UniProtKB/TrEMBL annotation:
SUPFAM superfamilies linked: Phosphoglycerate mutase-like (SSF53254)
Superkingdom of source: Bacteria
Coiled-coil regions listed in the entry: none
Keyword Hydrolase: yes
Protein name: Histidine phosphatase family protein
A Pfam family assignment: His_Phos_1
InterPro entries according to UniProt: His_Pase_superF_clade-1, His_PPase_superfam, PGM_Phosphatase
Keywords: Hydrolase
Source species: Candidatus Thiothrix phosphatis
Length: 191
């Protein structure tokens, strides 16, 4: 059996913003507390895999070090690029560009922010990384520290859901869930 526990990063300094792969802020004090609370009492892992973004990697390094676990940083697990919206708050964009803001959620495949990473390219990058994780860590229990977009892309892939449905999955800071694969049942979501 292979089990992958997913942990979204906690709140970064500066609060809720579009932080893709072009904007990175360290975790706030609250973000660190959120992440420690999310893993408290969780069973042991064989390794920790993380996005290279500081809001993920700093916690992953600290956790892996404190538990004596191997750590792998996977570049392709980073968040989608949000182009011109990088570093901006959703409230600001919805107030100044309401049509573009609504369009992103109505049609995330074709209505990306200017200069944003195409959703198809992002999803392909992330699902290839997911395949590498599943192959490399077959039969193990792994903690994967990443981003809401990364987690949504993997979930929609595993569920066979249309790419455009990714924006319909809401994941709070330090959200935690698991995917488990065995030979008889395939991949299942474990909440």
């Amino acid at each position: 059996m292979t089990r992958i526990d997913f942990l979204r990063h906690g709140e970064p300094e500066g609060g809720n913003r579009y932080r893709g792969c072009g904007t990175d802020h360290p975790l706030s004090a609250l973000g660190w507390r959120q992440m420690w609370a999310a893993v408290e009492g969780k069973p042991g892992w064989d390794a920790v895999v993380t996005s290279p973004m500081i809001r993920c990697q700093a916690f992953a390094e600290t956790l892996a070090g404190s538990r004596g676990l191997p750590l792998e940083v996977m570049r392709d697990l980073r968040e989608a690029g949000y182009g011109a919206w990088e570093g901006r708050a959703p409230e600001e964009i919805s107030a100044t560009e309401p049509e573009a803001y609504r369009a992103l959620y109505a049609d995330p495949l074709n209505c990306r922010p200017p200069g944003a990473e195409p959703l198809a390219a992002f999803t392909s990058r992330v699902t290839q990384a997911w395949g590498c994780v599943m192959e490399k860590y077959l039969g193990q229990h792994i903690l994967l520290v990443s981003h809401a977009g990364t987690m949504r892309a993997i979930l929609s892939h595993v569920l066979g859901a249309p790419m455009a449905s990714q924006q319909r999955i809401s994941l709070s800071y330090a959200a935690f869930f698991s995917l488990q694969q065995d030979a008889m049942k395939g991949i299942q979501i474990v909440l």
